[in-house]
Every structure is written in structure tokens, then in C-alpha cells.
Write a structure and sequence with these properties.
By secondary structure, the protein is mostly helical. The protein has eight helices and no strands.
């Protein structure tokens, strides 16, 4: 009948669009899939751990540090410490759009586009990390001379740190799909979350 023919056509259409995992991934355990991920992915994971630890350490002591070193009142210190996270609200979406535009060229293969985006993300992470190092140095220097006249305040270094806190996580997360196979994406982001939690845990104990 016409109804049965329609159902048959729908089933054939669905089967034609099914995405199957590569043969090499079928039947593998989670452990073998994790250790089968690329070296580039593990470099991204290591960078994320290294970023998470100092970020968490400073996140625990930032308000107290500003009170003690810059002699801010408790409310002022709380407001100032929130500046380090404001970049994620405004900078991250703009950065994501810029990276997508820079890494897309009609007629270029997907593999080359992935390599280009990964390179751009890694260079961006290095530059943002340098910005973060300068920010921490300025905060430490400003705190040491806060009692002197015309001493620099903490707000400019905190804003620079906000740039770092917005750029690095965005670029590291954007790097994950560029260095994994499609059937590894979910496991890759799971490992990425483990790395972030590990960095936060170690950073908390370091305080």
C-alpha cells in the first residue's frame, strides 16, 4: 500500500543519514579511548590544569589581598575582585566570533581549517598568559608600594587579568574539537572537565 511504501522510504532515508562510529572506535573501553587521544589534546589539557591552579588560588585570596595590600574597605575589595570575571561576559562572545571568522575560508579543507584554528588558539593562549603574568606582577608591585604617594591602584591590573580569564578558557575549549575525532568529542570534554576540577582542587589546597 501507499502507507507501507512511505514508511519504507522514510526508513531508507533515515538509514542513509545515520552517522556511525569508525570501526576502530567500536568495542573499545573508556580507558582505551582516553589513552588513544592525540598528543595535541593532552597538551591542551595540561595547559588548562596550569591555568586553573593560579586562577583558583587568586580567586580564594583576591578580596583579602586587596584589603591588606591596597587598604581597600571590605565592600570595595569585593567589588574590585569581581573585575577579574567581567571579561567573560563581554570579551568571550566577541572573541569566539572573531576566531570563527579568521579560521574560515571558502574552498579550504576542514582538516586545514582545524589546524589553522588550533594554531590561532594556541598563539592566543600564549599572549593571554603573558598578559596574566604581567597583571599578577603589577598587582604584587602595586601592593608593595601602596603606602607611597601616587601608588598605582589595583584596577588596571585586574582588568588585564579579566582579559586573561576570558581569553584562555575560551581558546582552550575551542581547541578541543580541533585535535579530536568526532566520536571522541564528549569524552574529550569530560577529560577537560576532569582537568579543570583537578586544577581547582589543587589550587584550593595550595591556599
Amino acid at each position: 500500500s501507499l502507507l507501507q511504501e512511505g514508511r519504507t522510504n522514510d526508513q531508507q532515508s533515515e538509514s542513509a543519514h545515520e552517522v556511525t562510529q569508525p570501526q576502530s572506535s567500536q568495542g573499545k573501553s573508556a580507558t582505551s579511548m582516553i589513552f588513544g587521544m592525540s598528543t595535541a589534546f593532552w597538551s591542551v589539557v595540561a595547559l588548562h590544569i596550569l591555568f586553573s591552579m593560579p586562577h583558583r588560588v587568586f580567586g580564594h585570596i583576591d578580596a583579602a589581598f586587596l584589603q591588606e595590600s591596597y587598604h581597600l574597605k571590605i565592600v570595595e575589595a569585593g567589588v574590585a575582585s569581581s573585575f577579574t570575571e567581567i571579561g567573560g561576559i563581554f570579551i568571550a562572545p566577541v572573541l569566539g566570533k572573531v576566531i570563527d571568522l579568521m579560521s574560515w575560508t571558502p574552498g579550504v579543507s576542514l582538516q586545514k581549517l582545524q589546524k589553522r584554528k588550533f594554531a590561532v588558539c594556541q598563539i592566543g593562549c600564549v599572549l593571554a598568559a603573558c598578559c596574566g603574568a604581567v597583571s599578577y606582577s603589577l598587582l604584587a608591585f602595586g601592593g608593595s608600594v601602596a603606602n607611597q604617594n601616587n601608588a598605582p591602584g589595583p584596577y588596571m591590573p585586574l582588568l588585564f587579568l579579566a582579559v586573561t580569564n576570558a581569553v584562555v578558557p575560551t581558546l582552550l575549549r575551542a581547541s578541543v574539537p580541533q585535535v579530536l575525532q568526532p566520536y571522541q568529542y564528549v569524552m574529550g570534554f569530560a577529560v577537560f572537565e576532569v582537568a579543570e576540577s583537578t586544577g581547582v582542587f589543587i589550587g584550593g589546597w595550595a591556599v
